[in-house]
Amino acid sequence: AQSVTQLGSHVSVSEGALVLLRCNYSSSVPPYLFWYVQYPNQGLQLLLKYTTGATLVKGINGFEAEFKKSETSFHLTKPSAHMSDAAEYFCAVSVGAAGNKLTFGGGTRVLVKP
Amino acid sequence: GAGVSQTPSNKVTEKGKYVELRCDPISGHTALYWYRQSLGQGPEFLIYFQGTGAADDSGLPNDRFFAVRPEGSVSTLKIQRTERGDSAVYLCASSSGRREGNYNEQFFGPGTRLTVL
Predict the structure, then answer these.
(1) pLDDT digits over B20-67, tens only?
(2) Cβ contact (<8 Å) for A99 and B56?
(3) Are the Cβ atoms of A99 and B42 closer than 8 angstroms?
(4) Cα separation, A64 vs B94, whole angstroms
(5) A45 and B105: CB-CB below 8 Å?
(6) Who wins on pLDDT, B103 or A55?
(7) How far does B43 lie from chain A, in Å, by closest CA?
């Protein structure tokens, strides 16, 4: 079975500062990895995903993440935070043979200070 | 085009009552998923349909929970004898049969917020 751990349930950053959200996973087979964003009272929106190939993946809104197999990590970064980045972020893992069901971490809520 | 829709957006019920939550997937999507998101937690998988059949129902917490997708499109999640612990946001997602890198992206609906008093 796979699992996801997100370090830090809340992160506060200043506008213009680096955003770094940490995600570690556990999987017995090569995983597919995802970051989703959830704005208040809205559904989950896919930010980016890693399936195969290049380990540094770029997503929407200036976010990127790097798959590091040796560290079992998939940390999310954005060089410069914007007020509109305030939301909750979820890391998730899937294994293709399991029907692509997603296993999510507990989420990290990002607060952006002006 | 239209995304995944879920009705109702909010449902308040009393302990012991029966509820049905509806999901309309994106047209043509063959796979449909239900997840449950409790307050302050990440979504948890409940059940996955491929067409009309439940391909994986390992996430259903107990036999009070049941889901159907009789025509391979709309799905209904049914909860019997509701308990206060069932209070959560129930999310539905759908994906197409086309493969991209051996993964079908899931598109999520806005969820149904269920409150059991």
Answers:
(1) 999 999 999 999 999 999 998 999 999 999 999 998 999 999 999 999
(2) yes
(3) no
(4) 25
(5) no
(6) A55
(7) 6
